[in-house]
Amino acid sequence: MPLFEEAAQLWSLSHSSQDDEAAMKRATDAWTVNYCVRSRHSVLKSRWRNFFRTDIGCDSYDGGSEESGLEMMMNEARRLRCGVVAMAALVLCVPLVLCVRGGAQMADQIKVDFAVDAGPVTHLGSGMLQSISTTQPESKYITPLAMHGWRLNGNKPEQYHVMPFDYYDRVKSFGTTNVYYELAAMGVPKPADRSKLAAWYQQREVLIAAIMKRAAAEKKNFTWEIWNEPNLKVKPWAKPNELDQAIFDDEADWFEVWDRTYRAVKAVDPKAKLYGPSYSAPDVAMMLRFVDHCIAAKTLPETINWHFGELWDYPAVVAAIQEKTKAAGYNVAFGAGESVHAGTDNNLDAGFPAYLFATAERLHMEMLHATWTSSPMAGDPQADAAEMAGLVTREKKIPRGAWWTYKTYGDMTGRLAAVSVTAESRSDGLASVDAAKKTATVLLGARKATGGPVDLQLVGLNAAGLVDTSDAAGSGHHWVHVVVEKIPGTEVDLPAPVLLSDRMLDAGKNGELKLPLQVGYRGALVVKLSAGSAPSGAQKAVGKVADDAFLWHHSPTLDVFEGEDMPIEASQAHTRETKLNHASGMAYSAVAFKQIGDKATYSFTLDRARTAQFWLRMLQDKNGAIVDVTLDGKRLCDPIDLRAEKHAMHEVRCGAMPVGVGKHAIAFTVAGKNEKSSGYEFGLDAIRLADVDQEVVLAVTPGVTAEGVTPNYDAVPDTKTVSVQPVKDSAGIHFALPAAVGPGKYHLTIGYALHPGGQRFDLLLDGEPVGLQRNSGGKTDEVKPGVDASDFGTIMITPGPHVLQFICADKKPLDSGFKVSSFVFTRYVE
């Protein structure tokens, strides 16, 4: 029975005689079991039944008007992500108000329809700003990326006439379609004295003509960019510390330079293509003023472009500009001359480019990868170095994780399939079908900071020739060969993507599959499809599976309690705040603590007993308090200092402890404040609980053999650490898991000391990258001594010897390093 028909039947039963509660229970149980089987959800049936009952603290039926009830249901469903049930209620137009106090994070719903032809793969998303030399990186690392655009500007006056010409042939040898030449000042500064402008314009026009004639003689077909980020050079808009670089008196002054340069280029070659305005961000009002001016002056470029900004804003900007240009009879192209966010964490992400490529293909908009990050690992800055904007490592010029995402996109051939995502989706991607090869590829990555679980629905597999039906007449199976790979987010080199699963799956006669996946916020997932064949013998329908733990997202069993929804008793005023976007439910509970001893107690209810691992997600701020945390009167963790330089949410991993059925109380008591804090600010975003099956804590002792580890202890509050001193930029700690530890998938948590001399580091376990880059240090006024416990994610591990390798991401003196206290391996119940 379809899901919504089942929901309708359930709703009908809920409005029948109150004496028929048994029938109601049977219906909810049946509907719950069917849903759980189809979605592989691990939430207990009773939790779903509670959606339709009133014993969890809110009414399931609002007796008010249908309109108000529906509006309340939609708002509550959005905030609590009760996707499936909320959709059922919405279709039925039933005024339900769904309330949940715990549950697993709902998966994003992404649908790929291979029967729909969404146009050819253009590779418009693959482009670059500079980042090469005449020999590096090697061509074998560039050609496979199918670069569509390359911007060759040169950042010094002497480079303006050299770099684009010297690099043009090499860039075109990679198959690049568009090569951009920035004209800008061309080494001749714009005079502040307007009486000298006429001579400057004349000199400029002579230079432009000479450059363009040379390009024609050498058969170099450039697209001409008039200026780089001119909005930052307009005096009223310039940053206070960059006023000396502001060369345009106002917007009209900039428009005059644009018009004169445009006409100078067209005077030499009427068919020449121009590219601009290259503003530093896609400010809609500013972009539309530029477009209006160019339409009136007849100086509209062939490609309208800008730099950076948020990708999710691009569609609205493109639509607003197209409305004006099409009405005026123009058909312009679009581009981002510098894309991907600033900062190492984003520029080197393996996952974010998938969202970049998807946006490029949907908008038919060219994206050029650029970064100005300055760090020893990333380059200084990357766009000036031959490192493909960080896609290859600095020293050896070999691929990082993000390079493999670009290569996957470069390997996508044929046509695009239709990909449907919601506006709220944390992940995004694109899919291609090669009809000649009868293969398909899906590339997914995070488009928001969290990433998370994804239900990937694949339909139209029959129409795309991706299903083998030779076995259908006999067994009724329709086989598809499905390979899933992970491209981890790591700053060290990555030899190849990590195989997660290699299977034959039955797509049924309709040619459909549903894969529950986990998209990490720094990593990408690749799903490769082709017509399969009937598995034989013991292989059955599972094929070769490297590790399902990294594939299926319904693990571990998880309860989430939002702070703003939990009942609270507090000694001071408390409010529900919605001003912080990083809050998990777009809101959090704030308590106005005033003094030591102030207390806030939150309560939650569990429907079963278990040993649970607790995570506390709380607000950090310059005015943050130090709080003690107890659960049912027992200390849950060491005091937590919530003082930090930045106003943001921070998650603290507490210990695992047994908890029973029923109501529990978690209390936060002010124990003091950091000497740099001027208040006792406190905010609770959420509490997470995960079922623990087994936990192994390995303390670092002098008996642990290591390379680059000092044998002496360094005392820090409440624990001890050993110092890891890098030897040749790395240090390895050897340890052994006891034989009593069963093989399987564990979450790895490492305790390390925070101290001003600490370094950023990448982590490898037995040679494989693990988790995100961590920082054990920072500025003295931002780092307090102590031990931080960071979760490095899920790993597969067996009893016996292992090695953890810490790879330096900083170039600091050897008297700094890492101070490691313990490794914790936790196996969770699924």
Please write out the topology.
Blueprint (H helix, E strand, L loop, with lengths): L2 H12 L6 H19 L5 H5 L16 H15 L2 H9 L16 E6 L13 E3 L19 E4 L10 H11 L4 E5 L14 H21 L5 E3 L25 H18 L5 E6 L4 H14 L5 E5 L6 H14 L5 E7 L4 H4 L4 H12 L1 E5 L31 H11 L3 E2 L1 E3 L6 E8 L4 E8 L5 E8 L12 H4 L3 E9 L10 E9 L6 E7 L4 E8 L26 E5 L5 E3 L3 E4 L10 E4 L7 E8 L3 E11 L4 E7 L2 E8 L6 E12 L2 E12 L8 E18 L6 E2 L1 E8 L2 E6 L5 E8 L6 E11 L5 E6 L2 E8 L10 E12 L2 E9 L9 E11 L2
Parallel strand pairs: 1-14, 2-3, 3-4, 4-5, 5-6, 6-7, 7-8, 8-9
Antiparallel strand pairs: 1-11, 10-12, 12-13, 13-18, 14-17, 15-16, 15-18, 19-29, 20-23, 21-22, 22-29, 23-28, 24-27, 24-29, 25-26, 25-28, 29-39, 30-33, 31-32, 32-39, 33-38, 34-37, 34-39, 35-36, 35-38
Helix pairs in contact: 1-2, 1-5, 4-5, 7-8, 9-10
How many whole angstroms does the radius of gyration measure? 29 Å
Helix % is 10-25%
Q: Find the count of extended strands (DSSP E, 2+ residues).
A: 39
Proportion of residues in β-strands: 25-35%
* Distance between the ends: 27 Å
Number of H/I helices = 14
The biggest beta sheet is recorded as:
11 strands, antiparallel
Overall pLDDT, averaged?
74
Uncertain residue segments: 1-104, 374-380, 537-556, 700-722, 778-787
Class based on secondary structure composition and strand pairing = alpha+beta
The rough form would be described as: globular
